[in-house]
Design a protein that fits this description.
- This protein is an alpha+beta fold.
- The chain has three domains: about 60 residues, no CATH class; about 140 residues, Ribonuclease H-like superfamily/Ribonuclease H (Nucleotidyltransferase, domain 5, 2-Layer Sandwich), CATH 3.30.420.10; about 55 residues, SH3 type barrels (Roll).
- Strands 6-5-4-7-8 form a five-stranded mixed sheet, with helices on both faces. A five-stranded antiparallel sheet has the order 12-11-10-9-13.
Length: about 325
């Protein structure tokens, strides 16, 4: 054993017992290194200390979590309702919430559940599928309802691939987990201020019409190709509606000007459109005007017909006879 200043160089034959003594206090890998450097040294000392610590059963039980793995973002689905994340939140007021989030649009669906069995979960998902269609991929945790045989059969029948997150690693299903935390905050801050359904509905309407931090777009715009009409839409006039209404009024005005020249008063001789046989037009007399554009007439054959202005002409029996000479289809 030789000394370099106050640092002792330990020969190979004594290194094992020295390491054993160094490890007696279970002070951790870093502190073992610092303690050793204050008293002794040998080539490869740090590596031997690390090996000694890692081989200790007690150390294995209490060691810290490893460094976080590199982020591996999932591929963004190109269409809505292609990949969906699901999870449960609660209980809230004795009920659980089934939360479903579309990975493309970030559109959330929330169902209030009195039971979270596989059977009830399947029923709610079937209801959502009836609105938006079948998925390609469903991501969930390892909850008992999601890993049940009944749930697996249901997804297989729908042609849905099921991806389950690693146990105790909720980040794999992060999209649903974030929505769970958001919903929890909404429910807690609104307790005692109305029903659970009311607050959920108000939140969802607002959420769907707000730019998402990831997509920078409304969930409703990406999911439905439009924004949802809310109370705030009453604050701004609809310019499109005004333009359409104005054009319709112009059309009505032009039509009225033409129609006024064809008003038929009671006793007026007219030609009425005949839909029973030839001729196409028959002589008639206006009995009464029954509406702005409708009249009741008496034909020369004593039939009473109701006719629109578009089915009456100013004319005489001579014109009706001419229509007989040149018959036309009804």
């Amino acid at each position: 054993m030789s000394s370099l200043g106050q640092i002792v160089i330990i020969p190979p034959s004594l290194r094992k017992p020295v390491l054993q003594q160094l490890h007696v206090g279970h002070c951790g890998m870093v502190r073992m290194k610092e303690l050793a450097r204050s008293y002794f040294w040998w080539p490869g000392l740090d590596g031997d200390i690390e090996g000694k610590a890692r081989s200790c059963p007690s150390y294995q039980q209490v060691r810290n979590e490893p460094q976080l793995a590199p982020i591996h973002p999932c591929d963004w689905p190109e269409t809505p309702w292609q990949h969906v994340h699901v999870d449960f939140a609660g209980p809230f007021e004795g009920k659980m919430l089934l939360i479903v989030v579309d990975a493309h649009s970030k559109w959330p669906e929330v169902a209030v559940m009195h039971s979270t069995t596989a059977e009830k979960t399947v029923v709610k998902l079937e209801e959502m599928f009836s609105h938006f269609g079948y998925l390609e991929q469903l991501i969930s945790d390892n909850g008992p309802q999601f890993i049940s045989h009944e749930f697996a059969v249901f997804l297989q029948w729908c042609g849905v691939q099921h991806i389950k997150s690693a146990p105790y690693h909720p980040a794999t299903n992060g999209l649903a987990e974030m929505m769970v935390q958001t919903i929890k905050h909404v429910v807690k801050t609104s307790q005692g201020q109305g029903s659970l359904h009311l607050h959920l509905n108000n939140f969802l309407l607002s959420y769907q019409n707000t730019n998402h931090g990831t997509t920078k777009a409304f969930p409703a715009s990406l999911m439905l190709k439009r924004s949802l009409r809310s109370g705030f839409d009453l604050l701004r006039p609809s310019t499109v509606k005004k333009v359409v209404t104005r054009q319709q009024q112009k059309q009505v005005h032009r039509r009225d000007m033409k129609a006024k020249s064809r008003l038929f008063h009671p006793g007026k001789n007219v030609l009425a459109r005949n839909y029973t046989s030839r001729p196409k037009w028959v002589p008639a007399t206006v009995i009464v005007q029954t509406g702005p554009v409708s009249n009741t007439v008496l034909t020369s054959d004593k039939f009473i017909w109701k006719r629109h202005l578009d089915q009456l002409l100013l004319g005489s029996a001579t014109e009706a006879e001419t229509s007989v000479a040149t018959p036309t289809s009804c």
